[in-house]
User: Fold Zincin from Trematosphaeria pertusa.
Amino acid sequence: MALLRFSLLLLGVSSVIASPARIARQESMTTTVAAATPAPTAWDEGAVKDFTIHSSCNNTEARQIKRGLDEAMELVSHARDHILRWGNSSEIYQKYFGNASTGEPIGWFEKIVNGDKAGVLFRCDNPDGNCALEADCPRMGHWRGDNATLETVICPLSYETRKSLDAMCGFGYDVANGATNFYWASDLLHRLLHVPKVGEGVVEHYAGEYDECIELAQTHPEEAVRNSDTLQYFALEVYAYDIALPGTGCAGTWTATSSEVPSATLMPSATETETPSITSAAPQMASCTALEGKTDSPVRIEGSG
Ligand SMILES: [Zn+2]
Assistant:
């Protein structure tokens, strides 16, 4: 009995001795974990979140371009969000993109909103002389193409004709018959898609006019999701329907006859998106089709293949 009691005593002593060691070991482990936490890294150091407006733009011009770009981000953000919310169950999505997967159009819109904008420049000094290419058909603006792939020129006529997004569905505009460049926001969306850093040379003009875009959604949905005009039409229609006039919008009904009239008269075509409006207050644009592709879209793809 005495031996057993002695053994228990030894056991107790051993427990008392072991306790500080365990505590020390726990403290040591805690320190090790803390040391393993990675230090924050500046992985996005140098990221550029805003477009650059060149010093050739005076304050009045720069303010209008800045506001137009802000509105373009609002338009494009909503186009992205509409797809994120409704996917391809959206009737408007199906109208413009058919049965195509949603990832690509979401991606183009998201790139414009949150992609790096380093070097993407808007200027006002007409360095290529294209703003007055033809006296009766001056340009609204153009991508500089091979001369400077990151640069876009905004010509003086833009300031007189482009409308604020606040005027969505106003001035007699509807999506089907209005020009895609009626608003600053959609005009600048078009111009940004030409910049290879944005459109990657993949977003192109596979179809131009409204009816062609609607057809493309059914025949070649894989091209519709990378068709510049389709992306513009979709963004305009969901903005009109969800935001400007909720539940109503201004989709309009395309009138085929208007595209068959002589070139000197008003046309609702999306192919005139690089061309100026005439003096009419209506959203349609004068036909300067001959200019299309010369300076705005050096790599124009004819037909949908
Ligand atoms: Zn174009």
